[in-house]
């Protein structure tokens, strides 16, 4: 476990005698932060933990990149559990496996690194800094795989701390502090918010926005979802984002369209909030507006084009030609070709793939979450990105509170994709009409 | 790992076929909660985690004692990590000890029980129920030692969740909601609050009260401290609690006396807040009232009498007689005897005990926390409890922000008890005057 | 307008020369406050109005009773409008009555006293002090009728400032600050709250409490109403106040009983909030619990006994004897006599009195407010006060949002008392059965 | 008082019999709103005041311009006090002038119009609508002088309701709801806010912004002030508004510069808040930052050019030529000419004008408010507006809490303009150097 330079550092510091206790301020930053961290995790951390944590955090934020990387390396390679104690607990478990020896082994395996991270969290801005630290670690993990133990511990702690039970759902509207609202502009990645005027429209009386917040990160939403209240299932993104909206129709909305959902903090990657958020927002909206009878997304299909392109013979035959044409001309498919495109997408999104489900990440998220594939819309998103991903096609996933559990089960266990009769009809037509003939792509890609 | 009855239960449920997925509502509560918990920790927990957690929590709260104990037993003995995976990780660590194998072993040793508890926390009132669960487990641990793995995991999680960084310091006063204030009355264990009138006096303008709160337990303080703003070091508890206080003197207070500090939730036993609380309250008070120049406790000495009683020859000689007399007559020591008692107490509280420090728990808390023993007061607390614990004597521990770290170090490392010149004088007198002659207790108990 | 002593005071002050501007601090309090008030209402008030107002308010609160009365006298007799300007405006209006001369006259008649009171309101605690000032003035008005102009102006301003549009309806429950809750205990005058435990029961989950608050009087409710959620029309106060209540029945409440409504501030006497409060609380409760179908009071009949006693022959005959007996024995009427008592009360409460309506103040309040007399209950309130006022009988007034306006109209215009079929039946029986024979009171008192 | 058409309307309605009580919904809007208003002010207003007020307000907001003007006309000409009662009170006062007859006359002169306006205030959005109503009335008053009685009453009520004692000072920063912040952008009239980025800079950590709010107008500031924290007296607006500011200097700010103060609601014209606001903000800033030692404005001199232009011979001579040149070339004065311009401005701003003070409205506001003229700065504001008003010159007024009252007195009583030694020096130089020779303007305009 000896990594050399850190031991030498300890030696250097020890030579200075008692100054070990109060870290000399003339140490180079890297030596200084390593010494402070050691103190923090030691018994000294008990008496002046918050002050020590403040010092480490402040210093960490000011490190240059190279020192920061060395410090992360130190965190990842030092702070392992006591080898003797761990070896003994491992041996005892192997000799006598059972609940108690397992529990003792877990205790011995709990790394001091986690305790250090927990104590760092006591300092001012601790939680935010640990999230940023994980963002850095994740970005460097590929080229610095030795950071893995640190990533494991950061993820473990953040997952525990950002437990659903500690999150607060807040409605976001025009009465929300600007310090929160500017985060929406910054984090919206699905359908860019072009500025404060656009934001204001998205928070208008026929819109809703909700986010999860954590008490330790007051102004920073972890995730937020934008909802449009409409009549009928919205099939295109344009009217929802249009700066000039018709004044509200006489009839009240019956459908809530979740048209954008964004995770905000890269350092919380892999820690899932979206599933809880959608379901809780459905409950909130039902309570506020009993007239709402349908809850659905209007979602992109970011994996569609890639899937098509990997097929043999893609872009041969009439649909292929049509797709190339509309892209070149920025025009639209004619109805016949549009139908073919929708059928193809229906097939893509309902593919079981031997129980693994469709390859589209957005589809996987919603299906795993208990939604069903409700409708495939064309034309729906004529933006360059929409064309690039799926030739302008978008999809509705429907959340039916009564059926979420059953759909989820079927998807997780058998890779079965729940879908509406309308989608089933698209699939039948495709099969019945001999899709192979209609499509440019040979039978090779059929499952 | 097979414990028999749970496996049989699983068999029973499996026979009912698909009903396994949706727990039949006619199952006996114990079988039902076990099945729900299994579901919660399984992949089903992903889709409907919050709903399942709600169901388990609600059912748990309604269990009779016997069923609850069986369920706790199940939690403690089931939900161990996967034996094969853990054995493999243990073997690999033993073969090649290092940061990465240790991290992998920690991952394999992380018990599903913790994941179950984390998912339970997602339900309504989850955190509060887990704290109550730990209270129950702690109460039963002595006679049911097999609950230890559950206790380990509960403590581990609660310690992580109740990290200082997630606690909120709130001032408590007469503008605080009654739902919080009634907790003060219920939890005050040092100097009983006799009712709302008494409480109101303790929140008056020459008093302060602060508590730590956790966002998931809104109305429940975790710990609170009561402070009196006075001139000079308060040496007796009576005037501080007196229902009829003189109107405030002309001169402003220069001293803050921490006269009562109470942990509120038994289920958080062993998770330390008091050290942080005192230090943060010192900062708050300094900011509010720059005129405050001294921060000290007025503390009981609950271990004093016990210590005296374990000595040979206790209660022989003049002091012993005097103590028995005042107890019988509810009278007071004369000055000479009072001085002897104070000297004895000074000895008790400054004993290094081979680096372990004095046996008094209150003293250990404050000394470990970086305070110094400032003054020994007699008479200070003539209540029956005060007499029973320490013949009415009380002690001031002083918090000097500048010296907290040094005092803490010296205490933790060498068991050195920081004390004031006044206490040093008591100790010198004792030695110089030949205490052995004055005291009823023979030299046998002197260190 | 010369009142003598004030002019002399002005002279005294003027002699001191420039010190007139900055009031000498060694003046007697009465002279000092009068001088400060003069300054406040002068142009000086513009530059340092808030500071001057603070000074006047602080001094006012510290005045002894005699000085305070002199100061109030000064306020009432000085600070009249400019006589020349007012006389001119009066003359012009008499010469040419019309909208514009009336408006000009109103401007000229607006007394500087009101401006002084408005400027006093700018100081710390100004509004609260003006309310207390009016309380004092009202208490002294009978023996000091010259205070009337001050009372007129105070009432005029407070009525304007405590406009419904500036009041905030707040729910009061166990999460309300103790500083507000203690006011409920202090102000509850209908059914005394015996302490914090009683209060807590009255704020339990099957109870509601609402109050009107004014932003300038944060902790002080102006008026509050206590509501019990029950099934069916509650006919007795005992079960509502019982410390030991049965756990809530299986069926949800369908009726909200307003069983106590209290004005809190004597200084706001004659400024009506109760009518608005009841109606707004009805709206709140309907929104929270759509299952509520009836909103009614359970009210005392404080004027009943007095009305009976003023009749000739009261307490002769069987009912009279029975009433005397139950009072002496603290027993209950038998059913026959109870029916007679209820009939008598029905007659009392429905009496038109030549369009003036019944003499009972509680009845007048609710009837004028648009309620109808719904039911007469016996036995309903066996407390000494209940017996003393109405031999233990209580009454329900029903608020039917659909009919409030019509009932109010009929009552205000013709003195018609809206009542239920059940009350109508009582009235018919009385007439049909020859009540004169049954009752102890001769025909003389029948209308 | 008969105005004809309203009486005919009443007749029409009366013919419809009982429908008079519940206003028929098919009436033309103008007749309908007049009838509703009559009801509101009648006894009916008691029972269903809030509902009636809602109806009037909603209808008022939807009226077309012509109907709205007729309705305002009706409000101004009807709703005068009862002529008989007023005449009698006027007569009695003339016969016997005194505090009590004056008070009685004030009561009789209080117009039902005010009561109507007070009752309108009970409806949803009442206060905001009354403010808008006054804005309309003020705009039309010139061509419709008969609206004066309505304006008198609106102003009287709003002045009373927007009493300083009811206003709340709030700090405005980036945590303030966007709904408030957008008002700053809309209302800033002194130095335009160019968008959200500019706004954010103005709320940065070296800036402060405070506003007065009224509880009935939650999101609408009545007035707000923008403050820059700087070192030394800021002499030019450019650096304060510059999008790119140097990072904060090492030394903390010692001066607070009030560089923009804006009234927000035209309907509150003539109701003064600015004087209170500045003084209270000075107190807030002193409490937050004890290091601040100077509080001053950086103000325009909007009346300077106009004053110069009205003089004979303006724009002859060297300064006149220089001013014309810099305006044509958008260049700057050379130091010598700059000094002449500052001297001229010093003279303008210190002119007593026979006790009336200088003609500049900004100067009058601050001088009346107790500030002193501290410094005249050139070049200070090179914007087109700055050039147009004062050739780019700006002024500091200093607020010295110790001297506010004395300065105010001297200004109000004698028109004396308090000014700094630096300004005095400018004045002396001007006199000493024979300004008449230096200046383009002949002696005619010298006082």
Concise overview:
Chain A is an alpha+beta fold and 447 residues long. Chain A is 52% helix and 10% strand.
Q: What does it look like?
A:
4 copies of one chain form a homotetramer. In chain A, helix 13 links the parallel strand 4 (255-263) and strand 5. The longest helix of chain A is centred in the first third of the chain and has 19 residues, at 44-62. In chain A, strands 1-2-3-4-5 form a 5-stranded mixed β-sheet, covered by helices on one side. In chain A, strands 6-7 form a two-stranded antiparallel ribbon. The model of chain A is unreliable at 1-21 and 433-447 (pLDDT under 50). Chain A has helices at residues 5-15, 29-41, 44-62, 65-77, 83-95, 99-109, 112-120, 126-140, 148-161, 178-187, 196-202, 238-241, 274-288, 304-309, 317-329, 335-350, 361-368, 384-390, 404-414, 421-432, 435-438; strands at residues 168-171, 207-213, 223-230, 255-263, 294-297, 372-377, 394-398. The first copy, chain A, has 447 residues and is an alpha+beta fold. In chain A, helix 2 (29-41) packs parallel to helix 4, helix 5 (83-95) runs antiparallel to helix 6 (99-109) and helix 16 crosses helix 20. At the A-B interface, helix 3, helix 5, helix 6, helix 9 and helix 13 of A face helix 3, helix 5, helix 6, helix 9 and helix 13 of B.
